[in-house]
């Protein structure tokens, strides 16, 4: 199996893992149609750099339901003095969903640094941004918590002492996020079942959360 281009003094081998997809999903109504992944790519285990671009898109047979001007994604992995750095970015320009939800630009970015010693990486969403968002013609300002995975329990090397999904501060922020969702009047019945502040972790230990504050 491939290894990193260079090996740190610890003689550890790091296998990168990163996937990016600018858009994908499906409509159920008023048409039933799957949207294939757009500008989708994966980073090789040895790191390096990759990029993908997709031009103007309109939903086949129903262009008024979904369109955007461009989609792009990049993935990269490299070894630096602080550790193994992985960066993933996906961007959409001029998104239009049914003429109701519109955005000039949507950009998601995830940066992780895995330490040369230890197991738990730092995680940051710095660089993610939403501009020109409107719903039914009303401008919407979204506040992003780009440091939602920030941890206070750090080791002597400045890396998390435990995984983010086990960090009490992170779990408290996610619980508050879930609570604010289920407190909304007339919330759909499936939301309290899926976003239960008393049961944050899935069977595999993962935690579903959002950078958006509300």
Key structural traits:
214 residues, mainly beta, two-stranded antiparallel sheet, 40% strand, disordered N terminus
Structural overview:
By secondary structure, this protein is mostly beta strands. The chain has two helices and 14 strands, in the order βββββββββββββααβ. It has helices at residues 168-182, 190-194, and strands spanning 19-27, 33-42, 48-54, 57-58, 66-68, 70-80, 83-97, 101-114, 122-124, 129-131, 134-135, 138-139, 143-144, 212-213. The strands form three sheets. Strands 3, 4, 5, 6, 7, 8, 9, 10, 11 and 12 form a ten-stranded antiparallel β-sheet that branches. Strands 1-2 form a two-stranded antiparallel sheet. The chain has a two-stranded antiparallel ribbon with strand order 13-14. A hairpin with a 7-residue loop joins strand 4 and strand 5 (66-68). The longest helix is centred in the C-terminal third of the chain and has 15 residues, at 168-182.
Radius of gyration: 20 Å
For the sheet with most strands, the description reads: 10 strands, antiparallel
Mean model confidence by pLDDT: 90
Give the tally of β-strands. Answer: 14
Question: What is the molecular shape?
Answer: globular
Low-confidence stretches: 1-7
């Amino acid at each position: 199996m491939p290894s990193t281009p260079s090996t740190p003094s610890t003689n550890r081998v790091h296998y990168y893992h990163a996937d990016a997809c600018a858009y994908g999903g499906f409509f159920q109504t008023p048409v039933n149609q799957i949207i294939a992944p757009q500008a989708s790519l994966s980073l090789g285990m040895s790191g390096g750099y990759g990029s993908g671009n997709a031009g103007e898109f309109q939903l086949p047979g129903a262009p008024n339901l979904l369109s955007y001007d461009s989609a792009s994604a990049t993935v990269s992995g490299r070894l630096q003095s602080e550790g193994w750095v992985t960066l993933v970015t996906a961007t959409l320009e001029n998104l239009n969903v049914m003429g109701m939800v519109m955005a000039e630009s949507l950009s998601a970015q995830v940066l992780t640094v895995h330490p040369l010693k230890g197991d738990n990486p730092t995680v940051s969403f710095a660089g993610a941004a939403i501009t020109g968002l409107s719903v039914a013609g009303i401008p919407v300002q979204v506040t992003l918590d780009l440091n939602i995975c920030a941890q206070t329990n750090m080791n002597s090397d400045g890396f998390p002492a435990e995984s983010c999904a086990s960090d009490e501060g992170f779990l408290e922020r996610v619980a508050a996020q879930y609570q604010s969702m289920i407190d909304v009047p007339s919330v759909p019945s499936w939301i309290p079942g899926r976003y239960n502040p008393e049961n944050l972790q899935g069977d595999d230990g993962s935690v579903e959360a959002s950078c958006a504050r509300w």
